[in-house]
Amino acid sequence: MDTLRKRGDIFLEHEAKGCPPVLAYDYEIVMDGRDQKYPSNYQLLKILPPDGITIDNSRRPYIVIDPRAGHGPGIGGFKTDSQVGVALREHHPVYFVAFRRDPEPGQFLSYVTRTEAAFVREVMRLHPDAPKPVVTGNCQGGWATLLLAASNTDLTGPIVINGAPVTPWAGKVGENPMRYNAGVLGGTWIPMMLSDLGGGKFDGAHLVQNFELLNPARTLFRKYTDLYRDIDKGDEAFLEFETWWGGFFLLNEAEIRWIVEQLFVGNRLTKNEARLEPGRPVDLKAIRAPIIVFASHGDNITPPQQALNWIVDTYADVGEIRIRGQRIIYMVHEQVGHLGIFVSSQIANKEHSEVASTLETIEALAPGLHEMQIEDIKEVDGKKPFTVSFSERTMDDLRALDDGVADERPFAAVARTSEVQAQMYDAVLRPWVKAGVTHTSAELSRAAHPQRLSRAMLSTKNPLMAPVAAAASRVKENRHKAAEDNPFVAAESFWVQATEQMIDFYRDTRDMGYELAFYGFWSTPWGRAFGKTHESRRTLKTGDEVRGLPEVAKALEAIEQGGFAEAVIRMLVLLADNRGQVRRDRLERSSQVLTMDEPFKSLGAERRAMIIHQQTIIASFEPELAIETLAGLIHELAERELAVQLVQYIPGSVDEMSADTIHLLKRFRQVLDLDTNIENVLENPLHASPRRHTDVYRALISEDHHESKALEAAIPKAPRATSARKPAKGKSTRRV
User: Fold this and answer.
1) How many other β-carbons are positioned within 10 Å of the β-carbon of residue 725?
2) Would 44 disulfide with which of 58, 119, 172, 302, CB 3.0-4.6 Å?
3) Residue 572 gets which letter from DSSP?
4) CA 268 → CA 257, 314, 412, distances in Å?
């Protein structure tokens, strides 16, 4: 009881301060959304590193966007073992997108997206010598990050989406009951009315209460019995979490209505129908940044289907992802819960750490759909390293996580009904509700919300709680713990388990009733006919139609154009397609070659990405012709030998190569008129042959009419002239 009293005091103090971010780190405000042309309540915070940690400003900055789903900011960094902590330990600059409790007057969700884009551009300005920042979005911040990247295509740094409900209709029958709420309890009109009762502001405490009711045995009972059982260990962890969980934030009516209409009930984002504002549709295909998606089977708020099915709904197949030059990597955890994705130290020290380190090399990954797999390695000297690999996946692999899409058809009828309900409420009831609401009644409705009232009633301000602190102190001083074999302790434990099971039984019965009622009403012939106009019937291109896209035609026309860089990148793409799986050590070698070594380094990130994109399309649609035309890209035998050795250096030792990899390497050598013997190349050939590397670079830039003058000015002249003419067969005009 004394711990609950402390929680009440912390809640009231937190509310009085305006619910500041509950971060475990000091910070300074870099930008304030109130100063933007379209003001919002968002702020850009710079995380100040703790003692003993230094920041390297040349490393990729991290920007963490926390969810605005009832709670306040801080879930991504209120522990040292967190997303923020992982990035700081790797010496990255870290920024945090926070928000104040009250939205700005007239604030729309489009204002928030504009503000977040301004924040990212400011971070890019502050770190001109660093790679593009990585943006991490948690839960609701995940789909907000997708909106940000889709509507601002100049922001091309990697984005990480953690537990984000992008496809809310998706899920498995019998497992994901939260998606039925609108069809059973009501659609958009409910948050509209609650906003009107709140004086135009929607109280986030309603959302928090929904989360708690999803698993009442855990949130309303077991959380407190665990506190009672472990009270001798202290209450610091409990109060730390409750500070964040008990900070309730507000949204404008326009914001919550957009979220419900466009996303949760309407499912318009994956149908390409969502609009941030009139004339501004959101197309997820427009995203140019690499996307990393993290989901979990243990997440009952955002199951993997809701986090991943947008990929299937948006792209025709993996070929279209490659054509767009997109890299989508996903990870599925087996058991961690929704909040565990953000706050679990186990996840932070493993999944988030590996994602952070892999982001350094992700731009070397060929466009496509990949699954990131992390495997434990035997513990050595108290440390357990992990091995990371990337496996190519197809749309069928994502579909296998679901039980089909037939169970999603009734949601279309719910979406249409929600629109009708909203229009009727807006025309008939809303004027009467607004007329009866005053500023005082709106504030009273928020203060009397059960989430707030239950905390405030147990604070020191309640006179009945005054004796609790003194009594708790006396109990603590004279504590005599019962023996573990005490029969009353056993009876207590039995009662706790029985009560928890009873609540679980109620929850399962309730959820089953929701599901039966939902499908019993909305799956009828009438329901299907009524919702037919709102079904997800977006037509995706077939494989033949995808081949006819302008990007493909342009790339295939250039199949015989290019030089050393194009040839090496094409062979690397073909090699990756041949293996189907890439280990991180190989990806790191590839990244080092393509980003740190000449001639690739001076290409710049944009041109390098363009070449990888182009060569991926060529390798995907014409793999045989892509191999046969390699000889036309590199004419000199010495350059050909260097290129093949460089490609062979990436997979490593010959003993570790598969038979298919060795066969493909021999094919490269055969097409390029080289000896087909495959020997180990364990050192970077570009490091071993700097003179040869300079000559190759000169040949490359001589073929680039747009950039040759600028690039040659930055390179010292070679001591002798070189010829770019094609040599006679079997001879080389240059000797290295």
Assistant:
1) 9
2) 119
3) H
4) 13, 11, 11
Per-residue pLDDT tens for 49-60? 888 889 989 888
Of 552, 670, 703, 662, which is closest to residue 615 (Cα–Cα)?
552
For residue 554, give the H/E element and its range.
Answer: helix 550-557
Between vectors from CA 308 to CA 306 and to CA 309, what angle results, nearest 5°?
A: 75
Q: How many CB atoms lie within 10 A of CB 680?
A: 12
Q: Which residues have C-beta within 8 Å of that of residue 516, sequence separation ≥ 6?
A: none
Residue whose entry in the numeric block shows the structure tokens 């496996």:
391
Q: What is the dihedral of CA 530, 531, 532, 538, to 10 degrees?
A: 170
Which CATH superfamily hosts domain 2-410?
Alpha/Beta hydrolase fold, catalytic domain (3.40.50.1820)
Q: Are 622 and 543 in contact (CB under 8 A)?
A: no
Phi, psi torsion values for 717, nearest 5 degrees:
-65, 145
Asked if 41 and 97 count as a contact pair (C-beta separation under 8 A), the reply is no
pLDDT computed for residue 693 by the predictor: 46
Contact of 246 with 455, CB cutoff 8 Å: yes
- pLDDT block averages, 10 residues each, the chain of length 736: 95 93 90 95 93 88 90 74 78 92 94 96 93 89 92 88 90 89 91 96 94 92 93 90 92 95 91 86 89 86 90 86 86 74 54 61 78 66 62 88 88 94 95 95 94 94 91 90 90 95 96 95 92 74 69 85 88 78 71 79 79 86 88 88 85 80 87 84 71 47 42 39 38 36
Domain residue limits, the chain: 2-410, 548-713
C-beta of residue 99 within 8 angstroms of C-beta of residue 73: yes
- Other Cβ atoms less than 10 A from the Cβ of 220: the count is 12
pTM of structure = 0.83
Within 10 angstroms of residue 366's Cβ, the number of other Cβ atoms is 25
**E strand or H helix that includes residue 134:** strand 134-138
- Burial status of residue 292 (CB atoms within 10 A of its CB: 0-12, 13-18, 19 or more): buried
Q: d(Cα 297, Cα 332) in Å, to the nearest integer?
A: 7
> How far is residue 340's CA from residue 345's CA, in Å, rounded to a whole number?
8
Question: Rounded distance, CA 247 to CA 218, Å?
Answer: 19
Decide if 389 contacts 403 (C-beta within 8 A): no
Q: For the residues of 660-716, what is the DSSP string, one character each? A: HHHHHHHHHHHHTT---------S-HHHH-HHHHHHHHHHHHHT-TTTHHHHHHTSP
Residue 9 confidence (pLDDT): 95
Q: DSSP string of 69-100?
A: SSB-S-TTTSSSSSHHHHHHHTT--EEEEEE-
Tokens of 500: 């928890």
